[in-house]
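User: My collaborator and I are trying to settle a disagreement about how two of our proteins should look. Neither of us wants to argue from intuition anymore, so we agreed to look at predicted structures for both before our next call. Could you fold the first one, then the second, and keep them clearly separated?

Assistant: That sounds like a sensible way to settle it. I'll keep them separate. The first protein:
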Amino acid sequence: KQWYQRRVAITAGKLGTEKHHKQLLEGIDSLADIGCFGLTELGYGNNAVEMETTAIFDPDTKELIVHTPNPLAQKYWITNGALHAHHVVVFAHLITHGVNHGIHAVLVPIRDKELNVLPDVLVEEMGYKMGLNGVDNAKLTFDNVRVPIDNLLDKFSKLSEDGTLTSDIKSTRARFLAVADQLLAGRICIASMCIGGAKASLAIAVKYSATRLTVGSKGKSDTAILSYQLQQHALLPLLARTYALNIGLDRVKRKWAEQIPEDHLEVVAMCCALKPICSWHLENLVSVCRERCGGQGYLSCNRFGTFIGLAHAAMTAEGDNSVLMQKVAKERLGMFKPQATVPVSDNIATTDQMINLIKLRENALFTGLGGALAAAGRAKMFQTWMLEQNESIQSAGRTYGERIVADEFKSVVDNSEGSTREVLQDLLDLHLTSYVKDNSAWFLTQELISPDQAKQVTAEFDRLCQILTPQALNLVESFAISDEMLSAPIARDWVGYNEVDNKGELDLF
């Protein structure tokens, strides 16, 4: 909930002007004024530019009339809206004197200070969800709600009292894209939450695996399950990938915060790539951790169910993952320049060679996709993009993201020292061998590697899992998540927890 509040602050800061900053930011920061973000409509999610909510200028009263014309236009999945928000940033078609100027953001009050819903606003609770039920989500409908023209967030478009709109951005499409850029911060936040969930899940699973004893070489229950290759091969690659994505995401955060205009399209592609990659990672990771913790992992108190719910929310919120990958591929095609590569060597199980393979894959996928679109021409562009090239589009977008992560991880390793560098190098190599191994079918069919070279990668994967296992507890401890924050009994004294009738509750902890 708090990151949605920050998102409202970012939107007001980025789309508003000084008058809005004075009116809103102090209350938002102190939580005295709770806001929500009203973009998605029931009938318009990914195709938001076609939304139907309107904000029509009334020349007689100098107001904007915000209206929901039909059920498909109700604002949908609006976080904070069901219970707590005082106002909502409504994205609507701005219409003056019969002219539609495209999507703009308008601040609309929906509750008074006592949290009573205001007249002509209908707030409906979305209902019980498969997870994250501590977050309230609403459907919002506006029945000709009147707000002052000053409620238009007008950084890009100024509206005079006579209804004249002036804007430095001439096309409605370009203005919409400028408004939609406010989603980038949300995507970074979601990716960050997913990395946090991945760290917590790994900490729980690794700590339990290090203390849960079962059959050893002499038939006694004297061997921690983390000693088994089965457990190591399940958890250690996920641990390495979590480190990799954390480091890659840090780079994206810096690029977003420090961006210059020339880098904007690159920042858009980065944000749109890392949100899906991080949320898909969490969904896979938490399912594996749950399974590897057996029946204990199925208990609600051990938290995996919570993180599965988070993962599925993250895969859809702020843009469906696969649709975002279409945007990544589209943006990258427009500025694509092949990555510099070197010939594949006999021994591919090295850091440089495995990163080189990722770059070769990125080059091949974008070159092939560009060729297919060029061959289709304008007449068949839609058919080719939407009906024929889905696998190439998805693979190209994801490979771009993987290359960003790999490059940044290598840069971090190269600038580290001593024992820290040694363990980070092993984590990087495990991340890379896992990626190449998982995608070996593509590398083999493209004849970039041979079966013997694929075996090299598998052997290195096995070795790295084995040598990193003794470091696993230290690696999850470095996440600095306290026992109280983890709260899962299996990450603590799970034997003591079961000495009493706990009913699956956490009162003892």
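The second protein, kept apart from the first:
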Amino acid sequence: MEDFNLHYRFLNWRRRIREIREVRAVRHQERYKRILVDGDILSYHGNSDEVGCYVAPRPLTKENNYFEVCIMDTGVRGTIAVGLVPQYYKLDHQPGWLPHSVAYHADDGKLFNGNGVGQQFGPKCFAGDRIGCGVQTEFFDRGMATVFFTRNGKEVGSVVMAMSPDGLFPAVGMHSLGEEVRIDLQAEWGLDEDDSAMMVDSHEDEWGRLHDVKVCGTLLEYIGKGKSIMDVGLAQARHSLSTRSHYFEVEIVDPGEKCYIALGLARKDYPKNRHPGWSRGSVAYHADDGKLFQGSGVGDPFGPRCYKGDIMGCGIMFPRDYILDSDADSDECLDAAEVNYKQRRVRNIMYFNDEDEEDEGEDMEQEYDGKKVTVFFTRNGKIIGRKEAPVPSGGFYPTIGMLSNGEKVQVDLHPLSG
């Protein structure tokens, strides 16, 4: 009988442990309603009559006391709210509307602190703006929290509120069609003002020219008219490719209406309203038809078409004796490096053997009859083709073109670094 009781207690103990584990697993799941979650992209998925709300799986802590939201699209009304809520907040209410929650609302710049009446707090926010929210760490153990908000890296204001027993969870609310944001739950804030400003502008500083393209961190968004071939939006990197940095990648976040997205290389003074590849001194792979354009408005079949989520890459295979002025003092050799991106691997072929290459493509203008390189393109980590091209004076600059409404890409100009 005693053995039976012990066995019964053991089974109860095992069942209790399993229940606790299940509760803990549920406790660390993100919660959302009328929100479409695609990685770190949150999109409103309702009919504009009802609120959509997202609550992060874990609360802010001393070690992780801040998060940020980048507004990618304000949609119809821009009714986007960013703030903190209890774990089991009602998902059909905007953050800040119910007790024990607080939020900064982008459409009117008001702060909502536990009720449906907001107080004027800061400026309105638009597409491209970054809203941050955090808790001052020194108040974590006192039952009260000083919650602060930022806009584009600068503090807007703060408010004191009671800490929920389970903590304060990052939350995003949306309430109209087309609203879309990118959330960064690992963001950091608290640098000196000069350092913070430098950090905010660091990605934009990577671009030498931007025409009808808006930068939000590593995200590029087309903001042109998209009505004719003269409405091209162009983004060109500040620095040309070299033997030290010879490859870059673009992920299609949103193909927009037509996916008229082009990735390639162009001379520094390339026309701002021409797709890469259309004019001399450029070569580009176009996502919408999979064609390669090299200094001409007529493309040649080259590779597969590209769609949302595809990663397009472009690089240069430099001959071993190729030396740029900027490389003269460098002893680096990247021959053994590899591209590691989202568990994909692209063999680094910065250098190539002339004997293995076929003579393909014809020379462009005679003014480029100097150095030649082989430009290669990748799709989702696999090389799809190569094209020989003469190097324009000053070098080849990473260049991205877009031409239809809604197009958005995420750019990594240095996927080989680190």
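Some points you might bring to the call about the second protein. Residues 5 and 376 are 72 Å apart (CA to CA). The radius of gyration is 26 Å.
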